[in-house]
Amino acid sequence: MKSIAFGTLKGGTGKTTCCFNLAGALALNPDNRILLVDGDPQCNLTNDIGIDCSDMERNNIRTIFNNKKVEPSELILKRVLDKLPNVDIIPSNILLIKTEMELVSTAGREKLLANYFDRNKEFFSQYTHVIFDTNPNLGVINQNIFYFVESIILVSDVSLNAIQGAELFTFLWEENIEDLGIRNNIKALIINNFDKRINLAKDLQDYYLSEDDFKDILVETPIPGSVAMKDTSLNHSPIVVLQPTHQAASAVRKIVKELILREVF
Ligand SMILES: Nc1ncnc2c1ncn2[C@@H]1O[C@H](COP(=O)(O)OP(=O)(O)OP(=O)(O)O)[C@@H](O)[C@H]1O
Ligand SMILES: [Mg+2]
User: Fold this and answer.
1) pLDDT of the residue at 108
2) Of 16, 149, 183, 207, which sits 20 to 30 A from 34 (CA to CA)?
3) Of 10, 16, 17, which is best to mutate to test ligand 1, by the most ligand atoms within 8 angstroms of its C-beta?
4) CATH number, domain containing residue 62
5) How many domains does one find in the chain?
6) Rounded distance, CA 75 to CA 55, Å?
7) pLDDT tens digits, residue range 101-132?
C-alpha cells in the first residue's frame, strides 16, 4: 500500500483537482484499488465526488480522531466513481475544523492517524494506494496526514504566491520532521494550471529547476489550465473519464506514469 498526500501552503493551487484527477488516472488500471481520504474541512474532494459533507450521521475522517475503535469498514464509502469501480473514499465533514481544537492537549496528537492505520494494517492492505487531500495549513490534522504518508506531492500554480507556498511548506515541514523523527517525505512537485502564454510560466519552471529543494522532484509534465479540468469537479468525474482525449487528460496520464516510475505511486 502506497500512501500519498497533496499539500502546500498556498490555497487554490489545485491540490484537490490533482488529487481527484490523478487518482482517476491511476484507477484506469483495474489492478489498482484506491482509497481517497478527504482531510480538508472545506470538503472539496468529498463534494467533487458528489457526497454531502454536512451529513452529521455519516462517519468521516473526523471519526478516526474521536473514536479510535471505529472499524475502517464503517468509515468508507465504496465505489464512489462512475466507470471506476476501484475507487473508495473516507469523506470529510464540515466539523473537522473542531477536531483541531479538540486535540490541542492530546499527547502524541500528530501520530493518531498513523497509529490508526497501523492498528488496521491488514484491512488497509487491500488498497494499492491511499491518497489524502489536505488544505493549506500545517495544523494538527494535516500534520497527522503528512507524518503518516510515504510521499507528499506539492502542487504549485503559476504565481509567485505559489512559489512562496511551496517554499514555506518545505521549510516548515523540514523543521517539523526533525521533531517527529522521520525522513523528508516530500517527493514531487506538480505545476498545475499551466499556460505557456503567461510570461511567468517558463520562469517558474526554470526557478524550480534551479532550487536545491525542488530540482530533483519537479514533475516533468505540467497540467494545463483548462475549462475541461474545472469541469471535472462539477461533473463528479475525473478528466480521464470525462474527456479522455483532451490534452489535460494526456498530461494527467503522463504524470501518473512518471510518478509510478519514481515509485511515488
Ligand atoms: N488545471 C486547471 N485548469 C482550470 N481550472 C483549474 C485547474 N486546476 C484547478 N482549477 C480550478 O481552480 C480552483 C482551485 O482548485 P482546487 O480546489 O483544486 O485548489 P486547492 O489547492 O485544492 O484549493 P484549497 O487550497 O482551497 O484546498 C477550482 O475552482 C478548480 O476547479
Ligand atoms: Mg483543496
Assistant:
1) 92
2) 183
3) 17
4) 3.40.50.300
5) 1
6) 13
7) 999 999 999 999 999 999 999 999 999 999 99
154 and 160 Cβ atoms separated by less than 8 Å: no
Host H or E run for residue 229: helix 227-234
The CA distance from 264 to 153, in Å, is 9
Interval between CA 3 and ligand 1 midpoint (Å): 22
Distances (CA, A) of 132 to 82, 212, 213: 20, 26, 22
39: its cell numbers: 482531510
List Cβ neighbours of 106 (8 Å cut-off, separation of 6 or more).
112
The answer, yes or no, to whether residue 55 has pLDDT greater than 90, is no
- Rg of the chain over Cα atoms, rounded to whole angstroms, equals 17
| 154 band by pLDDT with thresholds 50, 70 and 90 | very high
Predicted confidence (pLDDT) at residue 168 exceeds the cutoff of 90: yes
Residues 6+ apart with CB under 8 A from 70: 59, 63, 64
Rounded CA-CA distance 129/226 in Å is: 27
Nearby residues for ligand 2 (ion, Cβ within 5 Å): 15-16, 44
Query: For the whole model, what pTM was predicted?
Result: 0.98
